[in-house]
Amino acid sequence: MTDLVAEAAALDAADPLAHKRNDFDLDDSVAYFDGNSLGAPPKHVAGRVAAVVREEWGGRLIRSWSEGWWEAPERVGGRIAPLVGAAPGQVVVADSTSVNLFKALVAATRLNPGRDEILVDADTFPTDGYIADEAARLTGCTVRRVVAEDLPDEVSERTAVALVNHVDYVTGRVHDMAALTGALHGAGALALWDLCHSVGALPVELDATGVDLAVGCTYKFLNGGPGAPAFLYVATKWLTRFEQPLAGWAGDRDPSAMRGAYEAHAGIARGRAGTPDILSLLALDAALDVWDGVDRGLLREKGLALGDFFFRCADELLDGATIATPRGEDRGHQISVIDDDAAKTMAALIDRGVIGDFRPPNVLRFGLAPLYTTYGEVLRAVTTLGELAEG
Ligand SMILES: Cc1ncc(COP(=O)(O)O)c(C=O)c1O
Ligand SMILES: Nc1c(O)cccc1C(=O)C[C@H](N)C(=O)O
């Protein structure tokens, strides 16, 4: 144990991203492991939001719409683009992930006519499956749930699109974006990726892997704040044919003309539906400042190293614990420990200042946010788990 204490201290002292923690408003008495559900607030966000309320909403009043507010969804999307390996003009911030999933799924079936099946990652977060069922009902498709790794065998000439999670929200496993996208394309199907648990955690290469469509949340590893708007990616090759079903005025080619008939905007703005949620959007805009100058390679290295250290501590301090997260590099930045009494254990951990979460039926999740999680906190989490197991 003393070795682990010294090791954690040495790892923290040598961490090239350690200084980033100072950018966040975190209570040091708490070890926060839920950045994969609700990211921590960067310190400067509160002041920036207050300034927007005072100076833009207050001072400039309605003039603010033509002084940057209206175009903010594309501008902030442009800031997310490098984090997902997208060239400019393909990412817009709007609505929630659920809503963007609906837009993307229906648009995908229209991009791939004559096909009548939507494949969904069987282990997906519920909203993806629910929305796929409804998109299918409206488009005359059927939904088939298949294990992500089996997609290359399951995709067929009937498949219009497959919806896959980059990182599994329960186990933390990463799915191979390049290989699965390639296999889907080989059968003529489109690839729609849910990036909720990978954006801001590991490098994502949408353009390089040929992904067609993607969605993701901004309130997890991007720290945009509770309910911060999500993003939608449409690859350039599909943009002019991307016909989404929530064709509201904000996606029209000329919203201010208030024309009678909708004509989609030529660019990524066609992914928008209605008026943007400016306060949340500008909170996200401010939160994205923490990424300035962050080397994405270092981010991945630290995410993996935090996980490695979790495994090392668990091997030493938790007798025979079962961990659902793969030990190799096919994992995101989360460790999931199996516990038959997981709800109770997580409540006890939270009581002791270790905040992770519980996912039914038996998973304790520990999110590792490379910008602020420390090795010392990892040791504290595993030590506390061990103490609880001993009773
Ligand atoms: C994989 C995945 N997709 C979608 C969502 C959520 O979508 P929404 O922000 O619409 O609630 C989550 C988490 O809430 C998620 O983990
Ligand atoms: N979005 C959430 C919320 O509004 C309340 C509670 C949890 C969430 C989540 O983000 C859940 C998350 N997607 C998950 O991985 O389980």
TrEMBL record:
It comes from Amycolatopsis umgeniensis. GO terms for molecular function: kynureninase activity; pyridoxal phosphate binding. InterPro entries: Aminotrans_V_dom (IPR000192), Kynureninase (IPR010111), PyrdxlP-dep_Trfase (IPR015424), PyrdxlP-dep_Trfase_major (IPR015421), PyrdxlP-dep_Trfase_small (IPR015422). Coiled coil: none annotated. Homodimer. The lineage of its organism: Bacteria, Bacillati, Actinomycetota, Actinomycetes, Pseudonocardiales. Its EC number is 3.7.1.3. The keyword Cytoplasm does not apply. It catalyses: L-kynurenine + H2O = anthranilate + L-alanine + H(+); 3-hydroxy-L-kynurenine + H2O = 3-hydroxyanthranilate + L-alanine + H(+). Its cofactor is pyridoxal 5'-phosphate. This is Kynureninase.
